[in-house]
UniProtKB/TrEMBL annotation:
Signal peptide: none annotated. One of its GO terms (molecular function) is nicotinate-nucleotide adenylyltransferase activity. This is Probable nicotinate-nucleotide adenylyltransferase. NCBIfam families: cyt_tran_rel (TIGR00125), nicotinate (nicotinamide) nucleotide adenylyltransferase (TIGR00482). HAMAP family: NaMN_adenylyltr. It comes from Aliarcobacter vitoriensis. Keywords: ATP-binding, NAD, Nucleotide-binding, Nucleotidyltransferase, Pyridine nucleotide biosynthesis, Transferase. It is an enzyme of class 2 (transferase). Its EC number is 2.7.7.18. The keyword Plastid does not apply. Catalyzes the reversible adenylation of nicotinate mononucleotide (NaMN) to nicotinic acid adenine dinucleotide (NaAD). The gene is nadD. It comes from the Bacteria.
């Protein structure tokens, strides 16, 4: 089995994430794509939406995709998880013959600082989703061509429903009513 892992904070999930998954399913030779929400990214100090809620939003968004699974491994750890550990766990579960790990172009800059990065590079092939405004040297990577100028930060600051997947628009509007999001 060949798999791709797409890890992220998804705080909250937006349409660029959904598009990355669609393009990956189309362009990578994979049987399954596993989305792994973080409890907390090792380089970040806090999250905004509760991990369980970010997980539920991802479930709703990717329900129509039969080959997409949302993995609660990091959330259940209830603490910072390193990608190297998550990949080891997923590998022990599925014994895949090939593992891709998808990151956005913004994450290329600090990739060399990831925990056990040299070992991790031997375990996975990194795939980079291009990101508007980030011009990293990505010629050594497999590329997913994404051209959507949105971030979770933008959405937390100001909701614009055109960047929110249809399946969760109501949940996001409810957050706005409760003033959890502006
Ligand atoms: N618009 C985008 N284009 C390409 N890649 C993206 C885009 N948005 C997110 N990604 C990538 O998807 C993964 C998960 O993203 P993440 O949940 O951190 O969203 P984000 O929009 O970058 O959030 P934040 O604004 O909170 O940093 C990361 O590897 C990130 O680089
Ligand atoms: O393992 C690490 O050292 C490491 C350091 C920074 C980020 N990551 C992972 O990179 C992925 C993208 O994170 P984010 O917050 O940009 O969505 C997510 O799966 C993080 O756990 C992993």
């Amino acid at each position: 089995m060949k798999i791709a892992i797409f890890g992220g904070s998804f705080d909250p999930v937006h349409i660029a994430h959904e598009t990355i998954v669609e393009v990956a399913l189309k362009n990578l030779d994979i049987d399954k794509l596993i989305v792994v929400p973080t409890y907390l990214n090792p380089f970040k100090t806090s999250f905004y939406l509760e991990p369980k809620f970010r997980f539920e939003l991802l479930k709703k968004v990717f329900l129509p995709y039969p080959n997409v699974e949302i993995c609660d491994y990091e959330i259940k750890n209830d603490k910072v998880s390193y990608t190297y550990e998550t990949v080891s766990y997923i590998k022990s579960l599925y014994k895949p013959s090939k593992v891709y790990f998808i990151i956005g172009e913004d994450n290329v800059r600090n990739l060399h600082k990831w925990y056990k990065i040299e070992e991790l590079k031997r375990e996975v092939e990194f795939v980079v989703a291009t990101r508007v405004g980030f011009n990293q040297n990505i010629e050594d990577f497999k590329i997913l061509d994404i051209n959507i100028d949105i971030s979770s930060t933008n959405l937390r600051e100001q909701i614009d429903l055109k960047f929110v997947p249809k399946a969760i628009q109501e949940d996001i509007l409810n957050l706005q009513k409760g003033r959890k999001i502006e």
